[in-house]
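Ticket #4471: structure output looks truncated?

Reporter: J.K.
Steps to reproduce: submitted the chain below (187 residues) through the standard prediction queue, then opened the result file.
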Amino acid sequence: MNPLPPKPTRTDARTNRARILAVAGEALAASADVSMTSIAKQAGVGVGTLYRHFPTREALIVELYHQEIQKVIDLAHTLAASLPPLEALRRWFDEVARYGQLKYGVAEVIHAATNGGLDDQNYEPFLGAIAVLLDAGAAEGSLKGGTDPEDVLLQLSVLWRIPPGADSRKRSARILDLVVDGLRVRP
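Returned output as attached by the reporter:
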């Protein structure tokens, strides 16, 4: 006997899930201590609805992480295809910094859920995104060739250690200026 195919997700359930993720992203970027109840209220759903989609706080954080990191990965390819390499790299780094604000307060949850990064399905694609940008810059002559994307990732990892606040964007920009400056070819 063949099992029944899974029921398709209702439109309102998909809408609720998307709204929860959007609200959670903003709320967690503002404060890692935001409660699930507060997220549900801001999303305009009941707490039960939130827990049906995300049975634990960790499940919500991990799903948000996967969603946000995929956007960042995809953006690298878009920017590399549409901008000069140095500008593409810098714009992508700015987006990584924005993402770092989300990750700031929840890094420990993500670290635990991905076995310290060893089981992170996004690791290789993220390195690939860095490589796309580095390779374009090296081919064009504005960036040093042979730079290891993993070395660049280690430099970028400082971004998710910057606490949110009034000065966080300026600090991120100064750090990214240093990183980009180190990657440039010098005449």
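Triage note (M.O.): checked the attachment and the full token line is present. Residues 85 and 136 are 6 Å apart (CA to CA).
Status: closed, working as intended.
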